[in-house]
């Protein structure tokens, strides 16, 4: 029982405390306002490829032009101005990890990284911390803590590789590179962050079902038992399947993360948690399609974030957006393999969840299990609203368009519950391509809290192999514009 309390209760409190993010609400734009009055004024997509020409080589960020420029983010000129400040002063100090004793010889370089960070972070004239190219540095879990005295740039030219000593992670909240409470930070350089995750994947409770049942590790068995006995499985799933994090930015403000390869994370690759004003672009995130829980980019409790021009292929969601997130824009995303772009899961363990103002624009999915998905657990509360999915190409995607309000990550079906996270004001616009299954559009909404104001405009999805694609629609209030195929045969 003690064990249960120490693990599950803090999580519940975290979920509950996310509520407070919504007290200060100045954002009022209706994302449908413009497009729906413009009717068919959209362009046909062929394929949306991220702009990667400058990947790994963005010598002068001022000349960098992004074709899906953040300027187009209608409400973010303020964000942009603030991000400009994150560029750092011209006279900044160079802080090379090698000068602090990093050897890149296969032994642990954590101490040198830590010292270099502390030095850079305490510089009052701005600093650039450099991880030199063509070298591989092995590091244990590290806290890169702020606040720092002035704007900081972390230039990763070489490779940072994670230790596989699992015990090192226990004291660190199961996080590897943890940037905490830093303002005006840029992380860039074209280098690689390698989570070295294989040993973790093999141990995962999810991948190795035997672990959960009989022969498995004590931790998996105990957790499973507690979760079943106390019927708080959803909460538990979050605890032991989502916690290991490769690169986390926690409570960072005016942050830019760009031109990096992030691969083979222990579980999640890149996490933005409770951050404000984030620009993430030119990122390549890669892990095998069968690696468990390796979300590409996870956004939680974060406001004003642009994710541009990213190529993401992992064993879980390419991008997942969960509670407390607001004003999220993902543009020019290539996703696959993986589970697609998800809002959720929301409302696990009867929690309240709030996600609003999300735009996914210009994305290409290939061989993913989902395209654009909203998933909520039964029994939750709160909302997911003002969401636009537009200009999207699906290639052999199992569930191209899906809202699942009966989400259940469990072998036995979840208990029926009446409350639900309200899903409303969702626009699907100009979405084309193929479905790997016969059901291309699925709205499985809650009977008691139906999905409302769901708009479909110019949707053309056909089945990759079967003769015709179907839409499966339950408890959803829909409007159509333009040609929509497949349509819901009956609405209720
Ligand atoms: C990192 O900070 C957390 C608290 O935020 C602390 O619990 C942990 O021990 C620190 N880890 C390291 C390696 O310093
Ligand atoms: C589509 O995806 C399925 C698995 O989801 C795969 O078996 C099939 O070969 C794929 N088809 C094509 C044409 O790529």
Automatic annotation (TrEMBL):
Q: Which GO terms describe its molecular function?
A: polygalacturonase activity
Q: What class of enzyme is it?
A: hydrolase
Repeat as a keyword of this entry, yes or no, is yes
**Gene Ontology biological process terms in this record:** carbohydrate metabolic process; cell wall organization
| Active site: residue positions | 339
Can you tell me which family this protein belongs to?
A: Belongs to the glycosyl hydrolase 28 family.
Name the SMART domains on file: PbH1
Question: What is the protein name stated in its UniProt record?
Answer: endo-polygalacturonase
Please tell me whether the keyword Hydrolase is annotated for this protein: yes
- Location of this chain's protein in the cell: Secreted, Cell wall
Q: Which residues cross the membrane?
A: none
Identify the keywords attached in UniProt to this record, alphabetized: Cell wall, Cell wall biogenesis/degradation, Glycosidase, Hydrolase, Repeat, Secreted, Signal
Originating organism: Hibiscus syriacus (Rose of Sharon)
- The reaction(s) this protein catalyses: (1,4-alpha-D-galacturonosyl)n+m + H2O = (1,4-alpha-D-galacturonosyl)n + (1,4-alpha-D-galacturonosyl)m
EC numbers, comma separated: 3.2.1.15
Q: What is its main location?
A: secreted
The residue range of the signal peptide is 1-23
């Amino acid at each position: 029982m003690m064990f249960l309390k120490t693990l599950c209760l803090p999580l519940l409190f975290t979920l509950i405390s996310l509520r407070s993010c919504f007290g200060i609400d100045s954002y009022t734009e209706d994302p449908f306002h413009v497009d729906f009055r413009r009717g068919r004024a959209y362009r046909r997509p062929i394929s949306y490829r991220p702009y990667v020409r400058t990947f790994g080589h963005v010598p002068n960020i001022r000349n960098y032009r992004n074709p899906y420029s953040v300027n187009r983010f209608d409400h973010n000129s303020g964000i942009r101005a603030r991000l400009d400040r994150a560029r750092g002063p011209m006279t900044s100090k160079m802080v090379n990890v090698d000068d602090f004793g990093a050897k890149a010889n296969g032994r642990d370089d954590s101490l040198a990284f830590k010292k270099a960070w502390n030095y850079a972070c305490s510089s009052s004239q701005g600093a650039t911390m450099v991880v030199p190219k063509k070298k591989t540095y092995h590091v244990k879990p590290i806290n890169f803590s702020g606040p720092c005295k002035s704007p900081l740039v972390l230039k990763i030219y070489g490779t940072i590789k994670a230790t596989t000593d699992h015990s090192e992670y226990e004291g660190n909240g199961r996080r590897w590179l943890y940037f905490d409470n830093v303002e005006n930070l840029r992380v860039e350089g074209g280098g690689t962050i390698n989570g070295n995750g294989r040993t973790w994947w093999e141990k995962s409770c999810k991948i190795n079902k035997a672990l959960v049942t009989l022969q498995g590790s004590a931790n998996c068995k105990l957790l499973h038992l507690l979760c079943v006995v106390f019927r708080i499985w959803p909460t538990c799933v979050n605890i032991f399947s989502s916690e290991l994090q490769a690169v986390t930015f926690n409570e960072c403000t005016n942050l830019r993360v760009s031109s990096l390869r992030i691969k083979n994370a222990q579980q999640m690759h890149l996490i933005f948690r409770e951050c404000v004003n984030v620009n993430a672009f030119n990122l390549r995130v890669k892990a095998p399609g069968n690696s468990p829980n390796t979300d590409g980019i996870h956004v939680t409790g974060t406001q004003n974030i642009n994710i541009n021009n990213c190529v993401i292929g992992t064993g879980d969601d390419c991008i997942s957006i969960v509670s407390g997130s607001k004003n999220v824009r993902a543009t020019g995303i290539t996703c696959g393999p993986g589970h697609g772009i998800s809002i959720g899961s929301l409302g696990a363990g009867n929690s309240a969840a709030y996600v609003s103002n999300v735009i996914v624009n210009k994305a290409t999915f290939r061989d993913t299990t989902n395209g654009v998905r909203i998933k909520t657990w039964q029994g939750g509360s709160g909302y997911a609203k003002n969401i636009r999915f537009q200009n999207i190409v699906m290639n052999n995607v199992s569930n191209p368009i899906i809202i699942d309000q009966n989400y259940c990550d469990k072998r036995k079906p979840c208990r029926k519950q009446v409350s639900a996270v309200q899903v409303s004001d969702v626009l699907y616009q100009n979405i084309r391509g193929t479905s790997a299954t016969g059901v291309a559009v699925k709205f499985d909404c809650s009977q008691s809290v139906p999905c409302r104001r769901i708009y479909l405009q110019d949707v053309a999805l056909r089945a990759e192999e079967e003769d015709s694609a179907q839409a499966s629609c339950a408890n959803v209030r829909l409007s159509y514009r333009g040609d929509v195929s497949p349509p819901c045969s009956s609405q209720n």
